Amino acid sequence: MNPQRQLDGMAVLGTALGLGAVILGQWLEGGTLGQITQGVAALIVFGGTAGAVLLSFPWNEVRRALGAVPELYFRETVNLMPIIDEIVRIASLARKEGILALELQKSTIRHEPFRRAIQFVIDGFEPETVREILETEIDARREHEESRARVFEVAGAYAPTIGVLGAVLGLIHVLSMLSDPSKIGSGIAVAFVATVYGVGASNLFFLPWSSRLRRRAQERSQSGELVLIGILGIQEGLSPNFLGEKLRLYVQASDQDRRSEQGAFEAQRSSGGEAVS
């Protein structure tokens, strides 16, 4: 299973549209880009968020999350049909010639997780034991993938609060200038730029990146689920045609469930949950 990658135009458009809408709105209100470009505010928000994230996660997880950002703007197409075809082929062989015949065909299996799992069957492992082993591997792989999503999820929770902290610090500075009323208005405007940075970074970048990484983790776990269903089907002696149809139906149902879960997550987030916590 080799995922094919190509630039994801919708992901690029989504980021450009979100960022562009904010800048365009600022311009339509009569403002300028310079009014929301403030180095001190950026230092407080992004430096503070980075510090909180580094305190929350080990460096290797943060590094993996940052390294995954370029991947998010490429579409990853995984063709699961070769895995299904391979499982059906091995199931047909096992049904016709018996489990021990798989020893000679094991080297022809191209999908490495399936080749490793079929060895459990050849070695005579009980179905329940095989299930436990493969489910543990699937969970470990999903946990490894989703740990990257959690880094950005936590960053998305910290950034708005640190933005408010930056705004408060700015207001403290403004209060020190009460003797010069001409500077109060501009000082307050600069103070609230930190809030813009915090809320904007959270909702335009960190939380969308987290959602996309979580979805990608779920997609990648499909191949492991297919191997689990296929191995147990082979051990049960299911008809190869029936097993193949079962695997195809699983893929269809899994895609529908994932879309439903993604929609529910986005609805929960937009209702005021994690983005402003």
Main attributes of the structure:
disordered C terminus; mainly alpha; 277 residues
Mean pLDDT rating: 85
Q: Quick one: how many beta strands? A: 2
Q: Give the topology string: H per helix, E per strand.
A: EHHHEHHHHHH
The N- and C-terminal alpha carbons lie at a distance of 39 Å
**Helical fraction:** over 70%
> Beta fraction of the residues?
under 5%
Outline type: elongated
Task: Tell me the Rg in angstroms.
Answer: 26 Å
The largest beta-sheet arranges its strands as 1-2
Unreliable spans: 272-277
Largest sheet: 2 strands, antiparallel
Number of helices: 9
Structural summary, described in words:
The protein is an all-alpha fold. 77% of the residues lie in helices and 3% in strands. The chain is built from 9 helices and 2 strands; from the N terminus they run βαααβαααααα. A two-stranded antiparallel ribbon has the order 1-2. The longest helix is centred in the C-terminal third of the chain and has 53 residues, at 184-236.
Quick synopsis:
This protein has helices at residues 9-28, 39-56, 59-68, 81-97, 102-105, 112-122, 127-175, 184-236, 240-270; strands at residues 4-7, 74-77.
What's the helix and strand layout?
Layout: E1 4-7, H1 9-28, H2 39-56, H3 59-68, E2 74-77, H4 81-97, H5 102-105, H6 112-122, H7 127-175, H8 184-236, H9 240-270
Antiparallel strand pairs: 1-2
Helix pairs in contact: 2-7, 2-8, 3-7, 4-8, 4-9, 6-8, 7-8, 8-9
